[in-house]
Amino acid sequence: MRPRIDSLGDPTGVEIVDLIESHRFLLYTPKAVSPTPTDTERFVYPVTVACRFTTSDLRLSYPVPVGVRRREGREYICDVTYGAAREFEAGAYVIEIPGPPKLYLHVESALTVDATNGETRIAFGGETTVVVGTRSSHESPAATITVPDDPASVMRGVSRFGSALKTTSPERSWPTLRGHPPRVERGDELRIPDELEAIDTGVTIRVPADYEHVFPVASLAYYLGAAVSQGDRPRLTTKNGFSYPLGGGADFEEEVARVLRQVFVLDCATRTEGFHPADLAERRLVESVVDLDFAALYDAPLAERLETYLSVPETLVDDVKPTWGRETYVRPVADGIESLPYVARDLSVVRVKSPASTDTSRSRRSGREALHSFKRSGMESDHSQSVDADEAATGVPAPDEYVPLPTHDGLERAWVGDGTPVHGAKLHPEAFRHERTDSTDGVIDVTVVCNDEEMREELNAVSEVYGSREVVPFDVDFRVGVPTEELRALLAADNDLFHFIGHVDGRGLECPDGVLDAETLSENGATAVLLNACRSHDQGVALVEAGAHAAIVSWGDVGNLGAMEVGETFAKLLNYGFSVGSALELVEEYTSIGRHYVTIGNPNVTVAQCEDGLPVVYEVLSGEVPKSGEIDIELTAYPAPTFSIGAAVSYHFRGADDPEFFTAPAIARFTNEVEEIVEEVATLATPMIVDDELRWTDELFSEDGTTR
Questions:
Q1: C-alpha pair distances (Å), 211 with each of 133, 151, 208, 236
Q2: Which range marks the domain in which residue 505 is found?
Q3: Separation of first and last alpha carbons in the chain
Q4: Is residue 606 part of a domain?
Q5: Which of 347, 510, 530, 657 has the most other CB atoms within 10 Å of its CB?
Q6: What is the pLDDT of residues 231-242, one digit of tens each?
Q7: Number of continuous H segments (helices) and E segments (strands) in the chain
């Protein structure tokens, strides 16, 4: 389904709606305009829809980096970032605006691009015809590979992951130039579609033919477009005779992860010699460690470039410290095969966690301790205290089925295999098989059901959260005391989010007239489900198997006070634009019982787009916000569907000597005058960590820039 470009009424302008991903982008104009469809062939970059209209200027209600290049010859001129203003003489220009969705403007005029007043304004030299081109950010597997339960066959399947790459140049470090690897399903024999031709990068990864070695190289093979073949000693080779060892034993996984990070961060630095020159933080850091000829590297073949990348000191990754989105732990068994394309698409670091390497008694002890920790003084409701021991054991895995995951370097962690992680997300293969329901109007549909009068406070709190965004349209349906058949119908209806407040036990979701067991549902139309109730794990799994892409669930009894805190926090984070996986990590860290929740399915699912492009958390490093003087701020930019790993991020609060851009996801620190910080964030509803507590900037600061 193609994006749609429509005129706005009040205020005037145009709206660009990505119907597949439910993303909406607004361009305001001084007076009403009527977009007229036009051809897309004039655009160098791929677009699927184009329209033209006439206006004297365009305005965005928030600052974004605007790329400007000459239309003839595609000569790059500059990026106009936050706090800057530039004038351009009359000429033919291409203006690039980051999405979602991605926008390209063709104009012939003088230009003024101004991002100095908390917004972005593009003014022309009078009434000018503007041609807007856009494409959907939607990406999914284009073909399916069938593999038998045989590591050697899986190697051949993984060798085709690179067929999705749009380019083998350093530009593939941009997420929009890396397609989705083909889907993998298990079958009796190996079948690879003819259209999935292996690209000839001249790179081969050689590892022993077992799952312990094949799974960890999936992301690296995809990014390098490498063939994977059998070898006694893990190593990376090129057609030029170059050979690079990938470690052995306990060092193997760590070495593969380091190589992936090193190649990726050096590609990000090298791509600044190409279509998008920029003052990139990672390039500055690389140049402080090694001396490389980036211009020559940009034009070099992939194999030759790889050899240079791997000749630099191994300490490069430690010096640059690239932020990684997710680490995924996988059981080395055939069940993990189908999740590999989705893990590789995120460039996730993959680590094997085998039963033999797990201390079973410690795992069981960890599970029991986690379950017992639900019982917190003052946190339990009368309902949860009245549950007997037999009933409390239903609806969730047994204690020895919980999997404790190690401390991780990424922003998120995930698990593939039998059992449920104590923290993080469990990737469920069924969630990735579901096709996302196409939106017909670009509106975010949310249904909230409260089936517990004692939890009315959570219902009241989330009613003020969902739909509180000006740019993103919501349709929110609140229901109270919903009986079983009505609840069944609500779950079957198409929704972006279904938020259930109430009680769940081993039998199902409690209703005034009985219990609805999710395992009896033939379909579930909700993209994401939040079951904020006791022991909702198994019901959440059933809802994913019935159609949901992700379910946020608890794996034990939760008291009303803690559940209300968790429910409101999840609502705010999802409404702001965090994925369910990122939201879970924050809820775990900054709510009283957040560690008793887990995500089942696809952790990349989002309910609403983030107005700033990708969700950011500010942290005040000095504790409380001072009244005056300097303040140290750490910003963590979390991945989002349209700003996944490799996207460029421009921060508002950089100093004069700080780089303009970082690659997403990112963690960056800045020192600014507190008045400047407060003035910029006062009107935003953005999460901020103050004195180790998750707060929101619109609650912390008044619109006049003072602390509440």
A1: 44, 6, 9, 18
A2: 360-601
A3: 46
A4: no
A5: 530
A6: 999 999 999 999
A7: 20, 38
Q: How far is CA 274 from CA 66, 68, 170, 299, 590, in A?
A: 17, 14, 9, 9, 41
| End position of a domain, from candidates 546, 569, 601 | 601
The reply to whether 586 and 683 lie within a common domain is no
pTM of the model: 0.85
Sequence-distant (6+) residues with CB within 8 A of 453 are none
Whether 31 contacts 78, CB under 8 Å: no
User: Tell me: the pLDDT tens digits for 426-473?
Assistant: 999 999 988 765 555 568 899 999 999 989 999 999 998 887 666 667
Question: Can you give the CATH number for the domain in which 378 is found?
Answer: 3.40.50
- Between 367 and 514, where is the model more confident? 514
| pLDDT(668) > 80 | yes
Query: Are 388 and 306 in a shared domain?
Result: no
The partner residues of 331 in beta bridges, in order of sequence, read none
- In total, how many domains does the chain have? 4
User: Looking at 135, 161, 192, which one is the last position of a domain?
Assistant: 135
Structure tokens at 398: 């047994």
pLDDT at 202 over 60: yes
The per-residue pLDDT for range 265-309, each reduced to its tens digit, is 999 999 999 888 889 999 999 999 999 999 999 999 999 999 999
Under 8 Å between Cβ of 392 and 503: no
Residue 13 reports pLDDT greater than 90: yes
Strands 597-601 and 616-620, bridge-based pairing: unpaired
Residue 610 lies in a domain: no
DSSP secondary structure string, 422-455?
Answer: SSSEE--HHHHHSPPPPPSS-PEEEEEEE--GGG
**Structure tokens given for 635:** 């910003």
Of 22, 19, 1, whose CA–CA distance to 469 is shortest? 22
Average per-residue pLDDT for the chain: 87
State the angle between helix axes of 560-576 and 456-463 in degrees (0 to 180), rounded to the nearest 10. 20
C-beta of residue 236 within 8 angstroms of C-beta of residue 205: yes
Whether 608 maps to a domain, the answer reads no
Dihedral (CA of 6, 8, 12, 15) sign: negative
Same-domain check for residues 528 and 586: yes
Which of 52-61, 236-245, 249-258, 472-481 shows the lowest mean pLDDT across its residues?
472-481
Helix (H, G, I), strand (E, B) or coil at 470: coil
Same domain assignment for residues 256 and 379? no
Dihedral sign for Cα 702, 706, 707, 708, please. negative
Q: How far apart are CA 449 and CA 163, in angstroms?
A: 44
pLDDT digit string (tens) for 103-129?
Answer: 899 999 999 999 888 789 999 999 999
Residue 454 contacts residue 381 (beta carbons within 8 Å): yes
- Same domain membership, residue 193 and residue 86: no
Q: Tell whether 462 and 493 lie within a shared domain.
A: yes
Partners of residue 514 on adjacent β-strands: 511
Spell 6-24 as b/e; 16+ CB within 10 A means b: eeeeeeebbbbbbbbbbbb
DSSP character for 575? H
* Amino acid identity, position 244: Y
The CB-side HSE value for 129 (13 A sphere, CA atoms) comes to 9
Task: Verify that 266 and 336 share a domain, yes or no.
Answer: yes
DSSP string, 582-593: HHHHHHHHHSTT
**570: in domain:** yes
| Residues present in the chain in total | 708
120 vs 553: CA distance, rounded Å: 40
Q: Are residues 591 and 671 in the same domain?
A: no
CA 687 and chain centroid, separation: 17
